[in-house]
């Protein structure tokens, strides 16, 4: 994708999520998104068939956070601790900057959607980063070799999705980050050597 096109799409997505958080999903219009992004309605509809189509872009906003975090990982950190660090930072972002109803809408949309699902897209940076961490962890002897890289990555991603789903079903009555800090090490204990 040409840089200008990528920048336009990024502006639209960033403006949309800012407005969703500030005004709520239902009270944000395409016109609001276009105005804040400084783009046009034509540009909006070039990238998204509707406001609902923006829900899938949340997964890619998470990827931007993972790209930022990838540069902050200390080289000597144990691979298991790297996974916990990534989870803690992402869940802190969700707790503090993403409207909970949007997460619930994203998850419910993914459950009924036919075809590609953004949360399961193995080409996302999220999955590439996890595969790199797990591969390095197995090579260093820090993570079990009893499971394949893909099995560990799937387990980690499944645990994250399960915690988010539980949080949504509990109507956000607890801190996702704090819950995960207690529960994720228990769920993933078998992968650590």
List the helices and strands and how they pair.
Blueprint: H1 3-23, H2 30-37, H3 41-47, H4 57-70, H5 79-97, H6 100-112, H7 125-139, H8 149-169, H9 176-187
| CATH homologous superfamily descriptor of the largest domain | Tetracycline Repressor, domain 2
Specify Rg, calculated over alpha carbons.
18 Å
Helix content: 55-70%
Whole-number tally of structural domains:
2
Using the coordinates shown, work out and report the CATH topology of the largest domain. Answer: Tetracycline Repressor, domain 2
Description of the molecule:
It is a single chain. With 193 residues, the protein is mainly α. It folds into 2 domains: 1-50, Arc Repressor Mutant, subunit A; 52-191, Tetracycline Repressor, domain 2. It has helices at residues 3-23, 30-37, 41-47, 57-70, 79-97, 100-112, 125-139, 149-169, 176-187.
Task: Give short descriptive properties of this protein.
single chain, about 190 residues, Arc Repressor Mutant, subunit A, 9 helices, mainly alpha
Give a short summary of the structure.
It contains nine helices and no strands. The protein has 193 residues and is mainly α.
């Amino acid at each position: 994708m040409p840089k200008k096109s990528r920048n336009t799409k990024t502006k639209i997505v960033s403006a949309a999520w800012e407005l969703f958080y500030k005004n709520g999903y239902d009270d944000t219009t395409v016109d609001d998104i276009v105005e804040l992004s400084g783009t046009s309605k034509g540009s909006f509809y070039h990238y998204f068939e509707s406001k609902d189509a923006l829900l899938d872009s949340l997964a890619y906003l998470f990827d931007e956070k993972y790209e930022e975090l990838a540069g902050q990982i200390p080289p000597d950190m144990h691979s298991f601790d790297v996974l916990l660090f990534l989870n803690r930072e992402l869940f802190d972002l969700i707790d503090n900057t993403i409207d909970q109803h949007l997460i619930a809408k994203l998850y419910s949309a993914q459950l009924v959607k036919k075809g590609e699902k953004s949360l399961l897209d193995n080409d996302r940076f999220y999955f590439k980063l996890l595969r790199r961490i797990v591969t390095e962890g197995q090579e260093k002897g820090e993570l079990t070799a009893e499971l394949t890289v893909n099995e560990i990555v799937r387990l980690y991603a499944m645990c994250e999705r399960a915690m988010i789903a539980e949080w949504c079903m509990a109507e956000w009555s607890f801190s996702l980050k704090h819950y995960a800090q207690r529960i994720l090490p228990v769920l993933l204990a078998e992968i650590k050597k």
